[in-house]
Amino acid sequence: MAKTDKKAAPAEGGEAKGGGKKKLLIIVAAVVLLAGAGAGWFFTMGPGGHHEEHAAPPPLPEPKYVSIGTITANLQPDEQGSLLLQVGVAFKIYDYKLEEKIKAREVELRSRVRQLISSKSAGQLTAPDGQKNLSKEISAEAESILEIKKSGGSKKSAEHGEEGAQEGGHAEAGPDKSAGIVDVLLDPFLIGS
Questions:
Q1: What's the CA gap between 142 and 101, in Å, rounded?
Q2: In what order do the strands lie in the sheet with 84-93?
């Protein structure tokens, strides 16, 4: 029996050595895994990485509405006859410095808007997109007068009329809504004789 005990002892010792190697292998794998996770965090969230708070654009300030008053203009005659349009025009802006430019050139803006309205018929303005298209054209014209240069193509639409405005001349089509005229509001909008 003593012989069997000797044989059993090395076998137990062999298993103990194999178990120690397995534990060592598990510990090394865990360290490597943690190092990889740490490196992944460092490159995505650590210094020089992209943080969530930097990904969101800063909030825009409250919009400001700058009115150039009510404009009355004769419309082109159509099947409804010769009519007038009386419309209040206000520009929605985020760049408060632009208000000074609008006020300084108000007379020119009013004149150009009146000319633009006079080129329209009542049928064009009462069409489903009539007021929206007029707003886009007024925005393009105003940005041209105020020399606002944006990557949204507003200069092009001012030179090419309605066609250019439909191609992206309205301020909201541009990537930077905080610069220039964001929208043109028409209120009141009265067509009569």
A1: 11
A2: 64-74, 84-93, 181-192
CB 192 within 8 A of CB 72: no
pLDDT values of the chain reduced to their tens digit, one per residue, 193 residues? 455 555 445 545 445 556 788 888 888 888 888 888 888 877 777 666 555 556 677 787 899 999 999 999 999 998 888 899 999 999 999 999 999 999 999 999 999 999 999 999 999 999 999 999 999 999 999 999 999 886 554 443 333 343 333 333 343 444 456 679 999 999 999 999 8
Closest to 184 in 3D by CA, of 84, 112, 78: 112
Q: How many residues does the chain have?
A: 193
State phi, psi for 149 to the nearest 5 degrees.
-110, 115
Q: How is residue 99 written in tokens?
A: 């208000």
- 6 three-state secondary structure: helix
Strands 181-192 and 84-93 come out as antiparallel
Output the six-digit token pair for 86.
């009386």
How far is residue 158 from each of residues 59, 141, 144, measured CA to CA in Å? 29, 5, 6
